[in-house]
Design brief:
Elements lengths: L6 H12 L3 E3 L6 E3 L6 H16 L3 E4 L5 E5 L9 E5 L13 H17 L7 E5 L13 H6 L5 H6 L8 H7 L15 E7 L4 H4 L4 E7 L1 E10 L3 E2 L11 H18 L7 E3 L3 E4 L5 E2 L2 E10 L2 H22 L2 E10 L2 E2 L2 H13 L4 E6 L5 H4 L5 E6 L16 H18 L2
Helix pairs in contact: 1-3, 1-12, 3-12, 8-9, 10-12
This protein binds glyoxylic acid and manganese (II) ion (2 copies).
The site of one manganese (II) ion has 4 residues, from loops.
Length: 416
């Protein structure tokens, strides 16, 4: 028997979920998704997917960091489960696929097992994890990091958004502060299906990717304090311009990359720059900005962080500014299990799917599970140069179904 997911059902679910938090992008007119973690829209998305889990006859539990698991019984309930999951929160300018494909693809896999009357030896657990994006509370992979033991529950609960609301308060407010134990016992294996979010697979004509690992990620928030002043009357040499300092840091990051000192794959982004008071004729007295560094090489990443810290110190002295740096997230480069990669690749070969190995540029819940059990991921190519964290994010029905069917077959092999 060849097991496969129902493409139309997967596609419909992806679109039903994307309708929650849907918004029209004011610049492009495209429909995007805004389901920032622990907001009312996230709560509505959670409720829908939880209901789908229940309708599939799965035993649902919510843990103390708001992760939601759904368990399908195995023939031997004493064995550790195979876990397949991802996230359903989004960046504020997201698309329909990031995270959701992995959760709904796994759900459709379980539905296909039901339709075929297959019971696996091991239980299968589906999961979606709290605030994978890290966009609201500052730390990505938050729920899976707590589940897998990297971040203590109390630390995660105490994180605050820009309005001062804590993770714990918001979990309680939206009704997802569960009582299940948040630390997972080691699963037998973990697999995650995800849209690639980059251009590689489509550009090279591949139908799917087997993910080899995830590069290191470093997030910092810089608060630069200078002196606000009049734009017309304050001579340039007397200014303590916090906005100018942010620009200098941003430029320096690009110089670091262009130098090649940190390898050809280093990336740096200043995604948030907030000068205050943010008015045309006022020198910014204060600027908050963020730095997102990525590097597949841990040593190169650490060296880049040191250079940035030294530059920021020297700049503060030069411009007479106080610059405070807060590390909000930091993960090392992760290598996925060769064995799980091989199970995935074998199913792709058997189905005649043109595939390649690929390292992930984005962070994923799988990187947390890699610390607990053999783990790997499946990538589905994206359209439009693989654009993601953007309303234009898109993959085809065929590609999504191909990825979900590979996930299904991988889950069955691992659970047998
Ligand atoms: C998660 O989406 C990331 O920032 O890589
Ligand atoms: Mn994601
Ligand atoms: Mn994302």
């Amino acid at each position: 028997m060849t097991l496969a997911v129902d493409p139309a059902r997967l596609w419909n679910r992806l679109h039903d979920l994307a309708a929650i938090g849907a918004y029209r992008d004011e610049h492009t007119g495209l429909m995007g998704v805004n389901r920032l973690a622990l907001t009312d829209t996230d709560a509505a998305g959670r409720a829908l997917v939880k209901r789908w889990f229940e309708e599939a006859g799965l035993a649902v539990r919510v843990d103390r960091i708001g992760n939601v698991y759904a368990r399908r019984r195995g023939l031997d309930e004493s064995l550790a489960p195979v876990v397949a999951g991802s996230h359903i929160d989004s960046v504020p300018t997201g698309g329909a696929f990031d995270g959701c494909l992995g959760v709904l693809g796994a759900l459709e896999g379980v539905r296909a097992l039901d339709d075929a009357g297959v019971v696996t030896r091991r239980p299968i657990e589906l999961g979606f994890f709290t605030d994978e994006e890290g966009c609201r509370f500052g730390t990505d992979m938050l729920g899976s990091a707590v589940a897998c033991g990297r971040i203590p529950l109390e630390v995660a609960w105490a994180l605050r958004d820009r309005d001062g609301k804590t993770v714990k308060e918001e979990l309680a407010r939206i009704g997802f502060l569960g009582d299940a134990e948040e630390r997972v016992a080691a699963p037998h294996a973990y697999v995650e299906l995800h849209i690639e979010q980059g251009p590689v697979l489509a550009a090279e004509g591949f139908e799917l990717g087997v993910v080899t690992g995830v590069q290191a990620i470093s997030w910092q928030e810089l608060t630069i304090v200078g002196k606000s002043a009049h734009a017309g009357t304050t001579p340039m040499h007397l200014r303590r311009d916090a906005g100018f300092a942010a620009a200098r840091i941003h430029l320096h990051l690009h110089e670091m990359i262009e130098s090649g000192r940190y390898g050809a794959d280093m990336r740096a982004t200043m995604g948030r720059i907030e000068p205050a008071p943010n008015r045309i004729n006022v020198v910014p007295g204060r600027t908050v900005c963020t730095v997102d560094l990525r590097n597949p090489d841990d040593h190169a990443m650490a060296a880049a962080e040191r250079e940035l810290a030294a530059f920021v110190r020297a700049l503060g002295d030069e411009l007479q500014l106080a610059i405070e740096t807060r590390q909000t997230a930091r993960t090392a480069s992760i290598a996925f299990s060769g064995d799980v990669q091989e199970v995935i690749a074998r199913h792709m070969r058997e189905a005649g799917v043109h595939h390649r190995r690929i390292q992930s540029g984005a962070g994923h819940d799988a990187q947390e599970f890699a610390a607990k059990c053999p783990t790997a991921m499946i990538f589905v190519p994206g359209e439009y140069d693989g654009i993601s964290h953007n309303p234009r994010e898109y993959s085809t029905l065929e590609a999504c179904a191909r990825g979900a069917t590979t996930l299904l077959r991988t889950m069955v092999t691992l659970a047998s």
